[in-house]
Specification:
Two copies of one chain form a homodimer. With 321 residues, chain A is of the alpha/beta class. The first copy, chain A, has helices at residues 12-24, 60-64, 80-85, 87-94, 96-111, 147-165, 191-201, 221-233, 254-270, 279-285, 295-299, 308-319, and strands spanning 2-7, 32-38, 49-52, 71-74, 118-124, 169-175, 177-178, 206-208, 215-219, 244-246, 250-253, 273-275. In chain A, the strands form three sheets. In chain A, strands 3-2-1-4-5-6-10 form a seven-stranded parallel beta sheet, with helices on both faces. At the A-B interface, helix 6 of A face helix 6 of B.
Amino acid sequence: MTKILILGGGGMIGQKLAAELAANGLNGDRNIAVTLHDIAFPSNSAPGDQVAGDVSVAGTMKAAVANKPDLIFHLASVVSGEAEEDYSKGWAVNMHPMWELMEALRALHKADVQYRPKVVFSSSIAVFGAPYPDAIGDEFLSAPLSSYGAQKAVCELMLSDASRKGFVDGISIRLPTICVRPGLPNKAASGFFSGIIREPLNGKKAVLPVEDTVRHWHASPRSAVGFLTHAAALDTNLLNGRRALNMPGFSCTVAEQIEALRNAAGEDAVRLIRREPDENIIAIVKNWPRNFETARALKLGFKAEANFDEIIQVYVEDELS
Amino acid sequence: MTKILILGGGGMIGQKLAAELAANGLNGDRNIAVTLHDIAFPSNSAPGDQVAGDVSVAGTMKAAVANKPDLIFHLASVVSGEAEEDYSKGWAVNMHPMWELMEALRALHKADVQYRPKVVFSSSIAVFGAPYPDAIGDEFLSAPLSSYGAQKAVCELMLSDASRKGFVDGISIRLPTICVRPGLPNKAASGFFSGIIREPLNGKKAVLPVEDTVRHWHASPRSAVGFLTHAAALDTNLLNGRRALNMPGFSCTVAEQIEALRNAAGEDAVRLIRREPDENIIAIVKNWPRNFETARALKLGFKAEANFDEIIQVYVEDELS
């Protein structure tokens, strides 16, 4: 029986991961017990034991791992917009709990040296900051221009060092912007990348706050779940000590996104997008990564969509049917 | 009157910095008041008000900055060997106090928005991990292979984000291995790079634990002090948000170091070096950076020695005369 803990299990990705584990097991292994940990859960939550807790409260992480899970997905985080608005909360939720988690796991390892859980951490391409090369390679520096990115980068370093010291077996996967996000908009400054597709597909108006020429790096929620389960199974010796990995994705402009929307739902859908430039969002987005060359991740077997039509198709299949 | 606080003011670099400030002021400005903060001070300490405190104890940083210094040099650290031996102590001394410092300065800024001190942090080339390109450039990733390196990288991220948010004005300078260190050996695994020069120059035997072919990146203590005072005066707008900077240095092999020793002190000095391979040190050193291309720092006016003869000359002038 593999004990799996999903920190942030109430969130969008956590729920999709839990649903995948319930439907198909962990990479085919159905002998699993899944615990979802979060401050709150949706009323129609995916299957899994629910534990309510706030990771920013001291002692929460220690309690969360007391039963020695074999595999921990750490997805608990406030989003980029909120981390930027509320500096204290961002660091309190997105950084300090990783330290608490490492310390809790170190204590468990000390008491039982056989215990060395796999930890899969959802990092982000927000660890990068402009200026960029045409495509960001696997050896490009992490120089974040947001608190969210700084917090993710710090967590990567803590997890890598704890792994090197041998009391956890960690991997950080830097997610592209996840698109098309289902549900309601959140405080992520990247929300419009999903909104301009999701809202029109549901017959609703959407606001586009940036130029059509803005290029960005996308993968679907289904790909994100695939990254997580693939990372869980990965032999981390193949990482050669570099345990933070840029995930594959698809690079396209907003214009190309809109073209894919037109292909999927016609001109009427496209007409629901209202251009309403927002200087705040323009200023944030201009520092975001536009394109990657993810040779390492592809070689290690991580997979994403090959074009934006596929990304829309995933949304239609997983959310509208 | 510029209030200057040197955290780690009792250490080798802190003392040399204090001596420079006493002798020449801060880049010529003699209207300064210098406070040295450390757990202990040498009996023949350089000038400055001494404050004893352990930065790893909660509240120490808050107390240390309560009088609102205009300029803070943060050099307080346990060395790489000790951080590797004692994981808890390494993170407790080398990482958490930076967070405490940022929080203390944020509180002071909140009470007085005019207060935004310059913070110069001594980071290290230990933030890098093998494999490397022939020369590490300014956009190479930080993927440390030591706890010390991970802690320094985390501090850089915290300082950069705090600076971006505007309550401090920070810069992290990644020091080369400082050579020739005066005084007794410490727990730094890099100690032999200095030992094989310093001990023979003083008529003593020295142990060389690695091959002659090992290449490394060096600068003198005098250069280190120059980096710090230059960083203190630097307009950080020139950093374009990338506030961690590889310092210039000189790349040479152990054989070239020994050749420079021969030039300076003759064959008798060289004969005092005993080759005694140490597998532990060999394993650590093989992951260390060997060479850099520091275009940004050079353009910003940071200067180091041009060859190892100059580095030995600095030791002779500053320590033996």
